[in-house]
């Protein structure tokens, strides 16, 4: 990894830090999900970066993948755990970080956040060359168990590469020895513990709000759809996106966006990310940072102040 790559990772991290700070100022009961989403995403752009995925704003038992729709009317409730997951990139080098907000300061709910944060801190402490990924998972699980909670075992962190958000090895949130890859100099990972009082499993919900360009199709597409397909591919560079991005950049007329997305899903041009729900309906907290290792093996947490 050259110094230029490292610098791009750091720039992306600073953009996410700024957006997280802004989210903290905006989140209060009654505030609009849509306004928070648009402002936080715009902050990433203002910092000289692009989105590596749309903001995730997942409340309580929703663990991940809720992103506001084009005309979303959702508002912040008076109580609950709101997970804000933000991603940026600079020259394709990605920062991915999440923070959970305890909307009314409930001490019981704060325990979920504290458990996830201690798990993340413990993981960062051993995130260095020679550590096996399942050893990271073991630390995460132990820290969360210490809070009387469970880690979500079918969610975890992931390797990052240029323009590739989920590039390869999985960072488990439990001691799963099938993930025996060894951390090495030059690696970049997102590490993201999830804590819950439920079963510790998530399942796919019925709705999807986030999509990703998967493949080009040349046959049996009307000219209009061919044009839309090329524009989406060029704009998103195979990174996840929200329909709001297509509206913002006037890629597709607003009244045709959802219909086009459904058509492209059916034709396998787009992948989609269903919302992820804790199977028992228990609340979920998430804390996440991006960690890169320079060629000397020194870890750098790019999304931490």
Q: Top keywords for this entry?
A:
7 helices; Creatine Amidinohydrolase; Arc Repressor Mutant, subunit A; alpha+beta; 5-stranded antiparallel beta sheet; 3-stranded antiparallel beta sheet; 305 residues; globular
Question: What is the strand and helix layout of this fold?
Answer:
Elements: H1 3-26, H2 33-46, E1 50-59, E2 62-64, E3 81-90, E4 93-102, H3 107-126, H4 133-145, E5 150-151, E6 156-159, E7 170-172, E8 188-191, E9 194-196, E10 202-213, H5 223-236, H6 243-248, H7 257-266, E11 270-278, E12 284-286, E13 289-293, E14 299-301
Antiparallel strand pairs: 1-3, 2-11, 3-4, 5-9, 6-7, 6-8, 8-13, 9-12, 10-11, 13-14
Helix pairs in contact: 1-2, 3-4
Structural features, described:
By secondary structure, this protein is of the alpha+beta class. It has 2 domains: 3-203 and 281-301, Creatinase/methionine aminopeptidase superfamily (Creatine Amidinohydrolase), CATH 3.90.230; 205-274, Arc Repressor Mutant, subunit A (Orthogonal Bundle), CATH 1.10.10. It is 33% helix and 27% strand. The chain has 7 helices and 14 strands. It has helices spanning 3-26, 33-46, 107-126, 133-145, 223-236, 243-248, 257-266; strands at 50-59, 62-64, 81-90, 93-102, 150-151, 156-159, 170-172, 188-191, 194-196, 202-213, 270-278, 284-286, 289-293, 299-301. The protein has a 5-stranded antiparallel sheet, with helices on both faces. A 3-stranded antiparallel sheet has the order 1-3-4. Strands 2-11-10 form a 3-stranded antiparallel sheet. Helix 1 (3-26) packs antiparallel against helix 2 and helix 3 runs antiparallel to helix 4. The longest helix has 24 residues, at 3-26. It is globular and about 55 Å long. The model has no long low-confidence stretch (mean pLDDT 96).
């Amino acid at each position: 990894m050259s110094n230029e790559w490292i610098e791009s990772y750091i720039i992306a991290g600073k953009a996410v830090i700024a957006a997280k700070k802004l989210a903290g100022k905006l989140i209060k009961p009654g505030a609009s999900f849509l306004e928070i989403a648009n402002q936080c995403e715009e902050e990433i752009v203002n910092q000289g970066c692009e989105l590596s995925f749309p903001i995730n704003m997942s409340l309580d038992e929703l663990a991940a993948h809720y992103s506001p729709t084009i005309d979303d009317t959702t508002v912040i409730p008076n109580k609950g755990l709101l997970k804000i997951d933000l991603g940026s990139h600079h020259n394709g080098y990605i920062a991915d970080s999440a923070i959970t907000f305890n909307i009314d300061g409930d001490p019981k709910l704060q325990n979920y956040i504290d458990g996830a944060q201690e798990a993340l801190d413990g993981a960062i402490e051993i995130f260095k060359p020679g550590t096996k990924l399942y050893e990271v998972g073991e630390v995460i699980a132990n820290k969360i168990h210490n809070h009387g909670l469970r880690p979500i075992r079918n969610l975890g962190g992931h390797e990052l590469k240029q323009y590739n958000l989920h590039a390869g090895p999985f960072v488990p949130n439990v001691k799963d020895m099938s993930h025996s890859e060894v951390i090495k100099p030059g690696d970049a990972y997102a590490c993201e513990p999830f804590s819950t009082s439920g079963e510790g499993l998530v399942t796919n919900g019925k709705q999807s709000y986030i999509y990703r360009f998967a493949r080009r199709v040349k046959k049996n597409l009307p000219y209009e759809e061919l044009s839309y397909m090329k524009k989406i591919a060029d704009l998103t560079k195979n990174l996840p996106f929200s329909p709001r991005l297509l509206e913002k950049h006037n890629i597709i007329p607003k009244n045709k966006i959802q219909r086009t997305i459904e058509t492209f899903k059916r034709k396998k041009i787009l992948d989609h990310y269903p919302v992820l729900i804790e199977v028992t309906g228990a609340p979920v907290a998430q804390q996440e940072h991006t960690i890169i290792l320079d060629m000397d093996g020194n870890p750098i947490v790019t999304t931490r102040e």
